[in-house]
Amino acid sequence: MFEKLISTLNRTIIPQTSPVAVKIIKEAIELPKIKITNKKMTICQQIAYARYYGWSTLATKENSFCVLGASCSGLITTPERVLNGEVNCSIYQKDLNAAKKMQASMPRIDYGTIQVLTYPITRPLEGVKPDIIVLYTNSAQTMRFIQAFLYKEGGEFTFKTSGDAGVCSRGVAEVYNTNRPNIEIPCLGDRRFAMAQDYEIIVSFPFDYIDELVEGLEATHKSGIRYPIPFQLPEICDLPHDYITDSKDL
Is this prediction's pTM over 0.85? Predict the structure, then answer.
């Protein structure tokens, strides 16, 4: 399955960093050796280790460092200071009421996650089926994903964002909860601590959506929608007169 996805992505999207597999582990399973298991880290840093370095990571409630990421992934029960808006009041929102509204809209996986596992799909873990695939793309690559998402059903692709807890809330939790693809804008923490770039946009989709995605990418690519976008170069450029060749130039 990964081979087919990788082949299609490399031909139609050309991702700059590795797509990342994310598994939300609710019951103990046997895992192969994981590169990083005892390091204090955030969910976005777990994904950064996988997409930039090719390392697998495993987080538990003991070493998941960000309270938003830990609660969005279900590793911990969401603390009251998060639910009541205290953590983002006077930072992202004007007052507690506004901050509480933002937190109330944030997608979260139900408490009970034992571990959050991430690894690059270019280095699959034997016997492990991920729940979600996460990529970081530019706007043109994101356009190609949207076209693939709409290939079978048409309509429009909509997404929500709050400017905070980007990849952990909507890149992971919302996709896990809805079993549908999603697009999100990286948050401040992702940029500051996990190397998300100014131009990047998060695209994520369920692992079981791979066949439909591949079909959409391949079909739209075949129809002529290509990345990188081929520019249409003019036959006659608007050059100054003296720069234009004429019959005297032999």
Answer: yes
